[in-house]
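User: Let's play a game. I give you a shape written as tokens, and you guess the letters that built it. Ready? Here's round one.
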């Protein structure tokens, strides 16, 4: 190890080293689209939708313009609209709250499990009320929540379940299926930093309910039944463009390999913290796809400062819970959120991306071993 290498900064993520930046197949895919003259809803888009459906083993995948649109469209698809009540977690970056608020839905929050930081059937049970219409489960940091347990709670009560798989796409649950198949619909995001990211924005709704699929398919394009005939209310323009679709098809083929690398990085961090009070949150569920490497520690600030002094970037996902965000509507019902509020002070995101070198991972492990107390 040279002196120079040791001092090189380590970013949280570096997309310039990623498959989009480096793959000749991506260049060829973009070129194919440019010469085709079809830039929206062409053959790449159709192929991506069916390849994603096969990957998910789901009936339908409807590609849309972003993960937030996918959440809004999935909520519309399960019948939510103005005045509906949506229950979700308050620690997941605000995306579901934004998506629900723009439909005019009321929002209530469920607390999370302190080890995995995702909702459980028990936390959802204490948060739902007689007028709850839908629950959105966020599989946070790549950790996979017990969606089936939450579905079993919600279905007899007539409550729809949407899974936010933006951070967990590709995870294989203990039922042997890809995450996102337990609820009525699931939302994916292809924002560039996601495990399957595009060179811009993108998203998708996954469902095996034909009625929901058809509704989302119409609503993403003005609510059209056919060209220029607006049949469904609250339609929007939320199309995924052809260049992004072509790029995503390339990335989908190697997603599982990149996920394996992310998981191995988080495993090494977990080993480095063995016997210490700091613990990895990512990887706390066996099927985690390690989207973000998040640790939890009472000495979070000291660990962060040591990382920064050594040139290692860190982040906090997320610093302000939804119920305390100034720009989000007040919750329609207040449930205490002690675990959510406690975790915010203790979480720290450390570097994790598939192209990290072993040397970089070892440097981060070394810092963890030196700064996290027993
Ligand atoms: C990124 C993300 C979203 C939103 O996706 P966009 O494509 O950025 O709109 C939603 N939920 C979660 C958990 C996310 O991480």
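Assistant: Ready! My guess for every position:
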């Amino acid at each position: 190890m040279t002196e120079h290498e040791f001092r090189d900064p380590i970013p949280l993520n570096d997309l310039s080293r990623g498959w989009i930046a480096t793959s000749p197949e991506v260049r060829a895919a973009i070129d194919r689209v440019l010469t085709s003259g079809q830039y929206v809803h062409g053959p790449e888009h159709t192929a991506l939708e069916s390849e994603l459906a096969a990957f998910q083993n789901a009936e339908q995948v409807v590609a849309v313009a972003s993960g937030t649109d996918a959440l809004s469209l999935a909520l519309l698809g399960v019948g939510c609209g103005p005045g509906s009540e949506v229950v979700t977690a308050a620690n997941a970056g605000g995306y579901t709250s934004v998506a629900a608020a723009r439909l005019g839905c009321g929002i209530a929050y469920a607390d999370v499990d302190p080890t995995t930081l995702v909702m459980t059937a028990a936390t959802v049970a204490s948060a739902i009320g007689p007028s709850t219409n839908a629950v959105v489960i966020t599989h946070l940091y790549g950790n996979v929540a017990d969606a089936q347990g939450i579905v079993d709670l919600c279905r007899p009560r007539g409550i729809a379940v949407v899974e936010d798989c933006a951070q967990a796409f590709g995870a294989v649950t203990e039922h042997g299926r890809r995450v996102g198949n337990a609820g009525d619909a699931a939302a994916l995001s292809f924002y560039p930093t996601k495990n399957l990211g595009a060179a811009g924005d993108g998203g998708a709704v996954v469902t095996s309910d034909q009625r929901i699929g058809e509704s989302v398919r119409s609503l993403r394009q003005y609510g059209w039944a056919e060209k220029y005939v607006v049949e469904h209310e609250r339609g929007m323009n939320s199309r995924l463009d052809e260049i992004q679709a072509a790029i995503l098809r390339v990335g989908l083929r190697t997603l599982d390999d990149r996920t394996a690398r992310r998981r191995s990085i988080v495993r090494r961090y977990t080993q480095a913290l063995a016997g210490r009070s700091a613990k990895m949150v990512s990887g706390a569920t066996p099927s985690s796809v390690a989207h973000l490497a998040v640790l939890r520690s009472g000495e979070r600030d000291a660990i962060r400062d040591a990382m920064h002094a050594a040139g290692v970037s860190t982040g906090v996902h997320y610093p302000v819970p939804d119920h305390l965000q100034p720009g989000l509507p007040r919750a329609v019902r207040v449930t205490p959120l002690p675990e959510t509020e406690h975790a915010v002070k203790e979480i720290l995101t450390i570097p994790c991306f598939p192209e990290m070198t072993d040397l970089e991972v070892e440097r981060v492990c070394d810092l963890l071993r030196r700064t996290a107390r027993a």
